[in-house]
Amino acid sequence: MSLSPRSCAQETVPEKAVSEKPLALEIHDLRKSYGAHEALRGISLHIRPAERIALLGPNGAGKTTLIRCISGRTETSQGTIKLFGKSIRQPNASMQLGVVPQELAIYSDLTARENLECFGRLHGLRGRKLQERVLWALKWIALEDRADDLTSQFSGGMKRRVNIACGVMHAPGILLLDEPTVGVDPQSRQRIFDMLDQLSLEGTSILLTTHHLEEAEQRSDRIIIIDHGLVIADGKIDQLIDQTIGRHKQVQLEIEGELNAIPENFQATEPNTLLGFTHNLADDLPLWIQQLTEMGVRIKNLEVQSPSLHHVFLHLTGRELRE
Ligand code: ATP
């Protein structure tokens, strides 16, 4: 069954979270316009303590604008934003917030340690507390042995790790990261996601934007997809699959030559490619192969795919997610 994009939007705020612990982040009807252009058109969402959220959306969907509004870097046009129950407009509310921007924001003429000290001081840390936190951060990003090297000598992945550590020197309750793994090799990406998992285990809520769907699927507790300034999906990956494409497997067959007619049970995506969908692969696949063999169709290649976030994203937005 195909559902409209709006049909899987907005996970409802759980009673338990509301009554027992304040939500780490609660946004209601957030709007932001740049002149006549409405970049955010009424965003409502919430994040629980220690939850890891992947915020996805095609280019221009409004992800960076949303992060900038939460972090107070952009004035909102309408709506409310609360951090741990306090409006971000209240004094000190943003003490609970850590932000890692998309662009690298570290000093290349300072060492890793000096960068961490500098950002720690900006967040009000001094003396022993600051030094303890610097040591914690160097260990967390696994750069203790490079602490006194200039960051200009670091690889892209190492700079990213320092950049992230600068955003958490004050031990915020919630951390926002805009594309923390952009341009980073797969090994460094894994390391960054390991670091974030550790923070979440220690109780920090994480909201990150990413163009890496596999990691978003594996390393988040919930996925929020926005498009054209609206939340179009909000839920765990299994819920999103159930609400959109369903749990069938997709079988793609590449065949020799071209078909005169499309066989029953299949769609043709190219003249020599067939697509079939099944909830019962073990029973259907042998039957399909027999059916094609009897028609004289020779199979060159066969690929079975389980439903994934990539399929959900395509279904909801009609677009690929590109870096
Ligand atoms: P991407 O994945 O490409 O980074 P995004 O989802 O982060 O995109 P935003 O950068 O938030 O999207 O942009 C949302 C919309 O607002 C886009 O149409 C963009 O052109 C517009 N926009 C963003 N910043 C400004 C600005 N400072 N002035 C005018 N328009 C802006």
Which features characterize this protein?
elongated; four-stranded antiparallel beta sheet; 323 residues; binds adenosine-5'-triphosphate; single chain; alpha/beta
Can you characterise this structure?
By secondary structure, the chain is α/β, with parallel strands linked by helices. It folds into 2 domains: 5-243, 3-Layer(aba) Sandwich (Rossmann fold); 249-306, no CATH class. Helices cover 32% and strands 26% of the residues. The chain has 10 helices and 14 strands. The chain has helices spanning 15-20, 63-70, 112-122, 127-140, 156-167, 186-201, 213-219, 237-243, 281-294, 309-317, and strands at 25-34, 37-47, 52-56, 78-83, 86-87, 97-100, 174-178, 205-209, 222-227, 230-235, 249-255, 267-270, 273-278, 299-305. The strands form 3 sheets. The protein has a 6-stranded mixed β-sheet with strand order 6-7-8-3-9-10, with helices on both faces. Strands 2-1-4-5 form a 4-stranded antiparallel β-sheet, covered by helices on one side. β1 and β2 form a beta hairpin. The protein is elongated and about 80 Å long. The structure holds adenosine-5'-triphosphate. Adenosine-5'-triphosphate (ATP) is lined by residues 34, 37, 39, 57, 59-65.
